[in-house]
Amino acid sequence: MSAVPLRRRLDRLSASLLAAALAIVVLVWTLAPIAWMVVSSVKPTAAIKTASPTWFFEPTLEHYQDLIGAGNDVRPFAKNSLVAAGLSTALAVTLGALGGYGLAHWHHRSKRHLAFWIISTRMAPIAAVILPLFILFRQLGLIDSLLGLTLAYLSFNLPFAIWLMSAFFADVPPSLEEAARVDGCTRWQAFWHVVLPTTTPGLVTTAVLCLVFSWNDYAFASSFSGPGSQTLPMAAGRLITQGGVDWGQLTALGTLIVLPMVFAGLAVRRWLVTGLTLGAVTGE
Amino acid sequence: MMLPALILLAALSLVPFITLIVMSFSEVKLMGGIRFDNVGAENWRRLLTDADVRASWEISLVYFALTLGIEMALGIAIALVVHRVTWGRNLLLALVIVPMFMAPIVVGLLGRFLTDSTLGLYAWVLRCAGFEGDLLAGKTSALLTVVGLDVWEWTPLIALVTFAGVSAVPAPLLEAAAVDGAGYFQTLRYIVFPSIRRVLLVALLVRAMDAIRFFDIITITTNGGPADATKIIPVRLYETAFRFRQLGYASCIGLVMLAFSILMANAFVRVLGDKGLTR
Q1: What domains sit in chain B, N to C, each tagged with a CATH number?
Q2: Which residue among A130, A226, B45, B56 has its CA within the 20 to 30 Å range from the CA of A272?
Q3: With contacts defined as CB-CB under 8 Å, which chain A residues touch B99?
């Protein structure tokens, strides 16, 4: 190191200090709103409603208790959210794995068109999709039903899962499957026992992202659900339209909606880049 | 093996697509059973001369340009900063990407909470800096606020993808640049940016496609107001369909939006080129 002139070393030191300082600015910018939400959710209402921020207070769980209190119980909403998001995720991942495997092994001139169709379906504007689904669901009696909501979520989760699983399967060396076939496996056995286990990260990542997309939905739910099928984001949306907002309850509910998805998302961090760019960029 | 998935996908995409086209040529009646009355190209003719829809597209373009522009610039900058940090880089990146897992509706509500003129944290910060008043009440400040919320939620996505690209720049290339005496910004300009061009394009396309998909943040903060200042095209569509009950006309707006996103999807498939799926 002594060969490096002092000036270069000083430059390097100040560069890392600058990077650290900027990193702190970035962290404050991204995390302050979330931290403030979580802190406010355990503040007494009087401490929330001050013009200048209150930093010291007696923490309380009253807002969380209000969320399961009589007359305003969000547990049914949580159940609806879990069922609709969970069911659409399970179906999307199952069918997406099968479809994606087929797609990865299908080589035909028209594959480009198929790929284009799948990605267009995934990227169709939600507002435009709601219109025909609203009509179709009214005809089929799927308004205010969790099945309808599940199908609506599948309209974006299924193309996403097919596409992403296909990208993960494309990375599995073909020799693996060939070896299994030589050993006497049927195509299905080779898929189930040999290929699928190697794409476990792909399956989990696909599942997590499908879950996040559907759990976080508000537009579909607010158009299709009725009293029997409202989801958590809708409960949050309703809290603000009632005259006089109860910010304590709202921040508590926001925290409950956000935290599970943050942990789920961070759990698959290594494969997030692949997942969010639909396999177009591979991370690390 | 593809069959079950493709059949369900067809049911979920082609059937609604055809329905949407039929709707765009009809007056859709909901009362007393759903009825489509054929009105020919009337909805489409109206679309061509509708100043409100035109205004919404113009706001959308401003909104997209601002959000995508700021998100790309800021996302690249954050990726480069994170890349320079040596200690705790993984934790730093994990913390930076937290906002993008949040439900947009919660982001919108949080935005209202933070900018509330009587109790908001950010309203208080602004008051200390000399700015009084409700951010969501003024036309320009409302637009900038919803842009700011979108930027806050989705810049991390650009940063994450760009970081993956920057990390993948071959080390020998960087060493060679250092040996040749290239400074930091020269290295960025001549080595790093050329090698991550494709990654940046993918990030931009993914964001652009999502930008026209989501409108929850605006719905819950301004719902298009004040005085239509934030009424981007999906908000206009939603209002036309479900407030004014003109589902046929709204379908025309929807099909134009769909055409927009299909162009984007086409570009995406092209960028993928012979890699992966289109192989």
Answers
A1: 59-232 (1.10.3720.10)
A2: A130
A3: 30, 33-34
pLDDT in tens, B100-129: 999 999 999 999 999 988 889 999 999 998
Q: What is the spatial distance between Cα A169 and Cα B39, in angstroms, rounded to a whole number?
A: 48
Q: What is the CATH number of the domain that holds A97?
A: 1.10.3720.10
**Cis status of the peptide bond prior to B226, with omega within 30 of 0:** yes
| Tokens 């035909």 found at | A108
- Cβ distance A177 to A197 under 8 Å? no
B271 touches chain A (CB under 8 A): yes
What value of ipTM does the predicted structure carry?
0.91
Q: Which residues contact B144 (CB under 8 A, 6 or more apart)?
A: B135
Q: Which residues of B touch A151 (CB under 8 A)?
A: 12
Please give the model's pTM, rounded to 2 decimal places. Answer: 0.92
Would the CB atoms of A40 and B113 count as touching at under 8 Å?
yes
| Domain housing A11 | 6-64
Q: What pLDDT does residue B37 have?
A: 86
In a domain, residue A283? The reply is no
Q: Which of A51, A117, A129 sits opposite B124 (nearest CB)?
A: A51
Asked, for residue A84, whether it belongs to a domain, the answer is yes
Across A238-258, average pLDDT: 86
What is the average pLDDT score of chain A? 89
**Mean pLDDT confidence for A142-167:** 94
Q: Are residues A22 and A155 in the same domain?
A: no
